[in-house]
Write a structure and sequence with these properties.
Length: 137
């Protein structure tokens, strides 16, 4: 079984909008974990999804352990340019260091159609970024 793809680069401009739209859809259905503390707790509890990390965090030591946790848990992660973009996409006014987009909500249930839409969007974003990764390496 191959290891999880390691996406330790900033998302290319044409894929950035897809990632941010995916975050916005997940925010509507409450499938997000915002902030370092919530993301780390969710990863340690075994939740799966896509981890999106802001690239303009200062000091960087705040988030340096998150990619390591993602690699250990086989969770794909990607960087976006700014924490303000993450906050806007995640439907919050407060800038956010990182977001874990879950494939299913931790509380409550979704309609099967909405669940399939989130999974399809997740698969599309993962495929786009893995295509970008393979073209770089």
């Amino acid at each position: 079984k191959p290891k999880a793809l390691k996406w330790n680069f900033l998302v290319a401009c044409k894929y950035l909008t897809n990632v941010l739209l995916f975050i916005a859809v997940a925010a509507e259905h409450k499938c997000l974990k915002r902030g370092v503390k919530e993301v780390v707790k969710s990863i340690r509890r075994g939740h799966k999804g896509l981890c999106v990390i802001a690239g303009n965090i200062s000091p960087i030591d705040v988030i340096t352990h998150v990619p390591i946790l993602c690699e250990e848990a086989d969770i794909p992660y990607v960087y976006v340019p700014s924490k303000e973009d993450l906050a806007t996409a995640g439907a919050t006014k407060r800038p956010t260091c990182c977001i874990l987009v879950l494939t299913k909500p931790t509380k409550g249930k979704l309609d099967p159609a909405e669940q399939e839409k989130i999974k399809a969007d997740y698969s599309q974003v993962v495929a786009d970024i893995s295509e970008l990764t393979s073209s770089l390496f």
